[in-house]
Amino acid sequence: MPSVSHHSAPLRPKALAIAAALFSCALLSGAAQAASMKDGAKAYKPFIAENIGKAVAGAKEMQTAVKAGDLKAAQAAWIKSRKGWEVMEPVTGTYFGEFDKTIDPWPNAKTGYHAIEAVLFSANKTEGLDAPIAELLANMDKFEKKLNDKKFAFAPQKLLEGTANLAYEVGEEKSGGGESPYAATSIIDMQENVEGIEVAWKLVFADTLKKKDPKLADLIHERISNLEKLVGVADIKSMDAKKVHVGGEELAALMLQAAPKLGLKPFKVGDEDEGGADKPK
Amino acid sequence: MRSGLSQAIAGGFVALAMASVPVQATPVISRDATLPIGSELNEELLNQPTELFAAEQAGGKRSYLFNLGDMLFSSASIFGGKARDAGMSCNSCHQQGASNPKLFVPGLSKKPGTFDTSGALFNAKADNGVFDPVTVPSLRGSKFLAPYGHDGRIASLREFIRNVVVNEFAGAEPSGQVLDALVTYVNEISFLPNEKMTPDGHLTAKASDAARRGEALFNKPFRNNASLSCATCHQADAAFIDRKVHDIGTGGYFKTKTLINAKFNAPYFHDGRYDTFGEVVGYFDKHYDLGLTAAEQSDLIAYLDAVGDADTPFTPNTVQAEVDELTQFASVLEVAIPARDKEVIRLAVDSVGAEWREVGENFPDRRDTSVEGGVAERMKARAGVRDLVLSLRQVAMAAEAGDFAEAARVYVQYQQTVATVTPYLKTAEQWSLYNPQVHDKHFTALRQLAELAK
Lengths: 281, 454
Known about the structure:
- The structure holds two protein chains of two kinds.
- By secondary structure, chain A is mainly alpha-helical.
- Chain A folds into two domains: 31-39 and 154-271, Up-down Bundle (A middle domain of Talin 1); 43-148, CATH 1.20.1420.20.
- Chain A is built from twelve helices and no strands.
- The longest helix of chain A has 31 residues, at 37-67.
- By secondary structure, chain B is mainly α.
- Chain B has three domains: 1-192, Cytochrome Bc1 Complex, Chain D, domain 2, CATH 1.10.760; 209-307, Cytochrome Bc1 Complex, Chain D, domain 2, CATH 1.10.760.10; 319-433.
- Chain B has a two-stranded antiparallel ribbon. A two-stranded antiparallel ribbon of chain B has the order 2-3. Chain B has a two-stranded antiparallel sheet with strand order 4-5.
- Chain B is globular, with a radius of gyration of 23 Å.
- Classes of the chains: A mainly alpha, B mainly alpha.
């Protein structure tokens, strides 16, 4: 089993998730190969399965609470569902774009997380949400079906781009209230995003890079920890936006630098036109 | 984003459709936002106030100091506290060097276009405990309009700018070159040409008969005080000012405002109490007992409208305008990297990177269901912007590490990336917020969501 030696702190739930995923990977393919990016990408699939499961479970709780007219329970369930969704962001856009736009559209007053958010958290109502929640669940079901298809597999190249892209997005302007402005829970979105980055990185790339360029591997680890600290605050307003902005960009830039050392392409716009961007080297 | 007069001749659909789409407010909606709910920075402009610069008018070029000042004018990094966190810059209030008639911050604004520069929100140290918002002035022709501040309290533009940065918006003490650059830039912002007026402030044949009658009234002595006329303070051959403060019954001494391009500077008076020239003329008629007839008032309004006009007051924003402007901004790196000037490198990377991100946001991603078509093109445009931002960030990282050779190498790579990415941006432009129809659909969807939230 590969080490998760970057974790000097006691294992937190996400570290346990990484360890569990790596363990299942080791059982499948042998400890000696578990550290390869290919095996890491395989181990990443159960992580996504677990979290779309959390998103679904939260949405179902929300459905029940809405039917009962329990606003507080519905709000709590929305946040719970959203956490599952946000931690998957390294892949929601790159692998599940068709569901990203039906589950998490913005701006959209009819369907998806934010239409529900506006009603639950700003209008403070539970009325009129049966249809959008049912639609949300139906789209999540389609997401799960795609993921569970035996032919479906994550590839390191695309995972790297999705992970670096998310680091770049974490550094986006959040002064308007961020991704969940009505619920005012954007800091939770960001915390889950950073966790999603950390899991994807450590599961798929960290060990390989450590062998190729330990200095860069340490630098990336340090930048992830730094981002984690910066978003570990109560709300967006308490966050040092400038540091998060720079930190997100630096992390994404370092991942870009790591690409050739991992035998991957330093992705750039137009790669997809060349037809080779998704193929691991 | 900001664009110059040289970019006023924009192509195709943008120019055709720009007049048909009303600009609507999109105020802050989240209690999690840096600024209070209801704040409006009026940033989503399709038509931007036109910029014109003196050196270019004279056939010259943009100097390093000018480009640095231009870039800093759009940079949140020179401010501190909430202004910096909110991504505000000089340009937030003085859009393209003009004013911002829709700017509104609850608690600091009495009405759109006004702002209390001594409130607690942006710098508790400057809070004077008085709710005294003033209008956000246009900076056009600033070099002719000293002293500065509505009450003319500061003689030097340099001192005024420093006060804005440090005291109004809690920024760190700016370096000498930062102040010099901002002063250079502001001094370059010219009045816009107006074919209805000669350089010495007289009407031309292009002005209407009503305006001409108004001009005569403007110069006519007041009936109760023959030593005074409108032109006594608003001297036509001196940019319509007298560089003095006067008490005209509005609560103290305030300096004479220029009338050049003033049609675009509403609301009027130091506190923005009037929205139209009609209200302004009505006030003077009453205050000085001028005894103007309705027809005379109408003629004076026509005169103010004529001298306050501009040939090209607004310029449509386009991808090319953005690329040109950001190329000029980033050009300061060509001097700053060899000079090992970490301050300017850091400011340029932060500022230009933030501006690129704003450009990227104008290409709605696939999650924006209000926009139809061009998903692949829009995603490529966004990816291209990401490449540019990350490339710039690598310049800053190299410079911070003291590796200026690497910074120079990455900057060249950045320039190449601009060339590579620009065609992607242009291809996607028709599905972007630079297209008024797309812009309208996107903001309609935002407003629908805001309605749902009520």
